[in-house]
Amino acid sequence: MQGTSNLLRPGGTRSIKASLLSAFPAFQSPNFRSYFPGQVVSMVGTWIQMVAQGWLVLELTGSAFDVGLAAAASTLPTLFLSLIGGVIVDRYPRRTIILWTQSSSMVLAFILGIFALTGTVTMPIILVLSFLLGCVNAINVPALQAFLSEMVEREHLSSAIALNSAIYNGSRVIGPAIAGVLIAVAGTGAAFMLNGFSFFAVLLSLFMIKVGTRSPSPTESGHPVRAITDGLRYSWHHPLIRTIVIFIAVISIFGWSYVTMLPVVAKRSFNMDATGLGYLYGVSGIGSVIGTVLISMYSRRVDRLVFIAGGTILFALSLIGFTYTLSLPLALFFLFLCGFGLVAAVATMSATIQGTVEDRYRGRVMSLYMMVFMGFMPIGNLQVGWLSEQFGTGPAIRFGCLVTLFAAVVIIFYSRRVRSDYQRYREESKL
């Protein structure tokens, strides 16, 4: 009883607060505390739109390939524009960039909502708006990733990245659940409009954040092509960054693409409506949230290879299990493990890059990382959509899992060599 009473006293409350700050040190920053709730609201809206768009395309065309095509249209610009976005991020105030990109995303969400509500939406309209949103995200995502380093102290950066990933994945629990109900009650147009209004929260949080003014270095102020070349050269010669970028390419093409097929699986394998689809997304999101929490708490104590390779293997094996089961409870359990393993790997890779990159290259390196991660997704979306049409959704997803498993084994096999090369690189950089 005494332990319980201590928690009820003011000192006990402070102890709980201290424990939370110890587990999630990024919250020690007032800027991050302002950023966090606004980004949560905005990302919930983003997931609502993602689910609604996939469902709308499936209703319009009934084609699994078209579902993948619409998803590809929103990520394809990342492949071509991210490197330019990285130069912009390294040259101009990152908060200002994010304010403009978030405002643009809000306008695009409202436009899609109006088309859907008026019943004039078509597949070409969805593709064009998705492509424009992808152009905005090609600048927004690396800017947001780089901006984290301005909001928190360097020693708290891993925690901030994990919590930022928790925002993305936690919204996968709330957003799809809301989307499922909203689509059933009011239709996809209302879901798009709600996403548009959600951007007001993140815009307000950005106005509350106070950061210093960055002055670009002479290298950053040079010719854009030279700046891009310098960033690529730096990334290639950095052993850790090079290895992670190659590995994330495999995950982007052959692992992450399963998400775009969930509407097809929900409808054809489990006879689910939009609400049921929300459950599939949501349970995967719960696993992702738990994964990010563990990363924030144990990133300094556990070898990162455990999270990267181990998380990838857990993800691939669980996803294979998901494709074989027709039992809904078992399918939900496998999706939970998928979310846990995938986010453990991806968030750890992002934190590893952010923790080792020089700040003057941060925008360009993060743009390269996001270009590969998000820009290669269209390849994955198209290949999984095509394979699904030819051989079925299950075999298409399992093929990607096998490739991902092989890549994880290669990472484990070469991990000692990568560590040795990185140590040599650091020593040479000091000379």
TrEMBL record:
Residues 26-419 form the Major facilitator superfamily (MFS) profile domain. GO terms for molecular function: transmembrane transporter activity. The chain crosses the membrane at residues 40-58, 70-89, 190-209, 240-259, 279-298, 305-324, 330-353, 365-384, 396-414. Its main location: membrane. GO terms for cellular component: plasma membrane. CDD domains: MFS_MefA_like. It is found in: Cell membrane. It is a multi-pass membrane protein. Keywords: Cell membrane, Membrane, Transmembrane, Transmembrane helix, Transport. It comes from the Bacteria. Pfam families: MFS_3. Signal peptide: none annotated. This is MFS transporter.
